Amino acid sequence: xxxxxxxxxxxxxxxxxxxxxxxxxxxxxxxxxxxxxxxxxxxxxxxxxxxxxxxxxxxxxxxxxxxxxxxxxxxxxxxxxxxxxxxxxxxxxxxxxxxxxxxxxxxxxxxxxxxxxxxxxxxxxxxxxxxxxxxxxxxxxxxxxxxxxxxxxxxxxxxxxxxxxxxxxxxxxxxxxxxxxxxxxxxxxxxxxxxxxxxxxxxxxxxxxxxxxxxxxxxxxxxxxxxxxxxxxxxxxxxxxxxxxxxxxxxxxxxxxxxxxxxxxxxxxxxxxxxxxxxxxxxxxxxxxxxxxxxxxx
Length: 298
Known about the structure:
Elements: H1 8-18, H2 21-28, H3 32-46, E1 51-54, E2 57-60, H4 62-82, E3 95-101, H5 103-120, E4 124-130, H6 137-141, E5 146-150, E6 160-167, E7 169-174, H7 186-191, E8 193-197, H8 206-213, E9 219-224, H9 227-235, E10 240-244, E11 255-259, E12 267-273, H10 281-296
Parallel strand pairs: 3-4, 3-5, 8-9, 8-10
Antiparallel strand pairs: 1-2, 5-12, 6-12, 7-10, 7-11
């Protein structure tokens, strides 16, 4: 097939629809002579006259009549491929999505998100996967649609990112802990036995740096990999831990939570996805729903 044959489909569709060179020229915004040249090339390509003289007008040949509907369909399909996709229709959307996130995100936003999706798109199902690390390989491979997390040095620069909410760190311990009574000071906070949250099993973090700036040091009795595990341990012990406030709202029920008497920077939790999904209408719709749910629960 010659390279220009596909480009002639639009000219052929116009000629067959209009039944005249002049009409096809007006439809495509071309001169009559340019349209006549297109017809000549089409006759050569198809081996058929396509349109023949009948009195003052032109009539289609049997071959042209046979091609008319097929050519019109091909032109419509080509236009659909080259034009932006329509917005997703949630009511008729049937699709499974995978969201990789922390247990805290599921605990605090999962229920509201599931309800929002069910109300608008009953055919959509959402799978929550745990996020033990910041490796973007699953997003790159297409095995995960979205992730939530904090943008950092480990975040792949190729990912698309949209901020969901700002969070601050707070202290948490049992309701009957001595810290629950009296004024909270950095010295009192440092005196207790602490539980560090670290995916890498570290016993030192930003809290220790903030205490060191005040000439203080805390005793870290243990380290766990996630906030849910930390709060479960705090609930059954006399330990003190530090967690993000919004991420752990439901998990902290019944515990004593307090603002840190230290200058510890907060975090911005963002939604991450691979560029390949950026323009997908259904994916874009889901991203908007997640953003709306998080904003509503601010």
